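Below sits the subject:
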Amino acid sequence: MAKFSSFLLICCLTFLLLLVSSNTTNAESAIDAKRKEILTRRDSHKRRITALIKHMRSQLADHSAGVKVMEEKEKADLERRLALYVQKVDSMKEYVDDEEVETTMAREESQKKHRANYKEKIIAEARRLEEEKEKKSEDANYGSDDL
């Protein structure tokens, strides 16, 4: 009997270990999937900004060549924005660590909740206005029946 209870205890502990390790693996795979999603989105964003930088540099080259002359204020604004975009592209990392993935996931979850709450408020306000309109209509109809 003691052998059986020891065997049962070992089986239960093994099962719990497997369960914990599978949950850890699922959490890690979710983080890996989110990391991949973030990197894909970041790569797309980086390509768009790089194309914009190329276009802005082309505009400045056209200005310098006298092809399409800009006003000084317009040129200064373009140069300022160009510097900011270049800085943004340079700051984009090729690798995303777990902390950044978790921060992004938390931010997206917060935004999702905020959108849901906002939608609920809009729907509640629409219902309130509809009820108010119906009440005014009923009041107006009630008053006209007295005549």
Observations:
- The chain has three helices and no strands.
- The two ends are 95 Å apart (CA to CA).
